[in-house]
Amino acid sequence: MLKLDKKDLQILSLLDWDCRMPLTQVAKKIQLNKDVVRYRIKHLEEQGVISGYYSLIDISKLGYLTFRGYFALIDVNKETEKEIISYLDTKFKSGIIFSRDGEFQLGFISWEKSVYELQKKIKKFKEQFGDYLDKLNFTIFTEFNHYSLNEFNENFSKYISIKEEEQVFLKKEDLEILGELSNNSKISSVELSTKLKIPQTTIIHKIKELEKKKIILAHRTEINFSKLGYENYFLEIYTHNGKDVKEIERYLQNHKNCTYSVIGIFGADIEIECEFKTKKDLLNFIEELKDKFKSIKKIKYCSTLEYHKINYFPD
């Protein structure tokens, strides 16, 4: 486990929601020299604390539905598992891919225009890997709520929700910019201009417009919490008749260990992802939720072992 000082945690807190923030601005906010900030960020990258950068895009405004699937696998070795993950990335075009423990071993989140598109992908997947599938589990997200991890900075709290929105139609250049930022949101406007053959001034203007229209919701940093001694947990909360779901979600917005929550059509009434340093902390949190919200009848949990891909733009 790596030990970070207060300044490193402040840097992570700022970059978590705006990794395109100029170094001069980061330096001013945390009262450090710009070159020192640059060195610290590079060090965090080299240590694996920062594993990437991506733009959080409101895909509902682009006309996409959000599907989450789990696979229970049988007779799978490490090589076959890698093949499945690669297929989910390159062929299935999943936006988010992760390994987990418990009943299901692999999970993915996919952005699709319709359930029929997903059905076609599942059919092809089964043709390729059906012998290794024990069972599948799917849900459709109606809300995908993202929170800042206040454990890093108790004075900073941010909340973003992806839910049903009126569709916005974008030009080809806008979509190309979104595609690049979703893979690396720290790419400079100069690099984008060269890569996409679009004038730099146009790039800068278009990014500002996409932010203004809230198509780009944030430029986030992918933080490897395991390097900091945290374990990632996924909770499924079931309530009596769907009561208190909105109240639970509001409570989570300012909880220092919660990173996101999901409300879907099938399964649990609300699902949570959170980061805790010990299993005891997790169990205390579960008891805290049950004490506060008497409508909760059951909470199931598992560990998310590894994220293989995070990308909020449909291929």
What do you see in this structure?
The protein is α+β, with helices and mostly antiparallel strands and 315 residues long. The chain has 2 domains: 54-165 and 225-315, Alpha-Beta Plaits; 169-212, Arc Repressor Mutant, subunit A (Orthogonal Bundle). Helix content is 37%, strand content 30%. The protein has 10 helices and 11 strands. It has helices at 6-17, 23-30, 34-46, 78-90, 115-129, 172-183, 189-196, 200-212, 245-253, 279-292, and strands at residues 50-57, 65-73, 96-100, 106-112, 133-147, 159-163, 216-223, 231-239, 258-264, 270-276, 296-310. The strands form 2 sheets. An 8-stranded antiparallel β-barrel has the order 2-4-3-11-8-10-9-5, surrounded by 4 helices. It has a two-stranded antiparallel ribbon with strand order 1-7. A hairpin with a 5-residue loop joins β3 (96-100) and β4. The mean pLDDT is 92.
